[in-house]
Write a structure and sequence with these properties.
single chain; 266 residues; alpha/beta; seven-stranded mixed beta sheet; globular
């Protein structure tokens, strides 16, 4: 039996082959036609198809593909009907009448929370360290940019591939007016629950990227870089980072926001 390959890059149509080859070279992984995928034993395939990039788990009981989508589905519904600045994430980040803070989301993932905040008028820096997730997010932003309606929102989102701690350490050295007013953290919670209650994206991310073992050090770096506050999204019953009590918490049904206030937002 051949050894399991963690990740391959595949193309659907001949027109997608050049991009698949370029992505595979960037990641240093094998590239293959999706028609020949059953000849390999692999855990994931990064698909290049007419809809862009998607990460597809392999195997007979594998979940569906994961891709960054800002145009349709749940993200579009949330943009239109999510509750505006009354949303808990907006309150946690200090969005209010006349206040639209500069925010750094240093655990960007698929960019959904950052997109919500950009929709509300905030300028966002998105930091993602995983090369695969960064590519998925970059692809989603590029596809969304084809929508005239979304272009003003996307203009407020800047994507960077970097290690969060190193990026925050550099951000802390900026002049005050260039530092993020708010640093937003949503670290991967270190548990291995495989139940249907866990979103498929989280299972994929844990398998491919692992947990955020540096989450505690991330808080210190965030507190040093943020001008006004640090916001940490956590599962509702999870411990606080570094066992450090926040200034206050906003509680939801399944998650909460720990807010570390440093200075009043204006």
């Amino acid at each position: 039996m051949s050894a399991l390959i963690p990740l391959v890059c595949g193309w659907q149509e001949a027109s997608d082959q050049l991009r698949a080859v370029a992505v595979a070279e960037l990641l240093g992984v094998p590239v293959i036609s999706l028609d020949a995928l059953d000849t390999l034993s692999c855990a994931y395939v990064l698909r290049c198809d007419s809809e862009g990039l998607a990460l597809q788990p392999c195997g007979p009981k594998a979940a569906g593909a994961v891709r960054a989508d800002f145009v349709g589905g749940a993200v579009a519904h949330r943009r239109q009907f999510g509750g505006g600045q009354g949303q808990m994430i907006a309150k946690a980040c200090g969005v209010a009448k006349g206040v639209r803070p500069r925010i750094a989301d240093v655990t960007a993932g698929l960019g959904r929370d950052a997109f919500v905040l950009a929709t509300l008028g905030c300028d966002l820096e998105l930091v993602e360290r995983s090369p695969v997730i960064h590519l998925l997010l970059q692809d989603g932003l590029q596809r969304a940019a084809q929508s005239d309606e979304l272009q003003p929102i996307l203009a407020r989102m800047q994507l960077v591939r970097a290690e969060a701690v190193a990026w925050l350490q550099a951000a802390a050295l900026r002049p005050e007016h260039q530092r993020p007013q708010v640093v937003y953290l949503d670290p991967m919670f270190p548990h291995r629950d495989k139940s249907a209650l866990v979103k498929k994206e989280m299972l994929v991310f844990r398998d491919l990227v692992g947990d955020d073992a540096d989450a505690d050090s991330l808080l210190d770096a965030a507190l040093a870089a943020a001008e006004c506050r640090v916001v940490v999204k956590r599962p509702r019953k999870a411990p606080t980072l570094m066992q450090r009590s926040p200034s206050y918490q906003l509680q939801g049904k399944s998650s909460r926001f720990d807010v570390y206030a440093l200075k009043k937002l204006s």
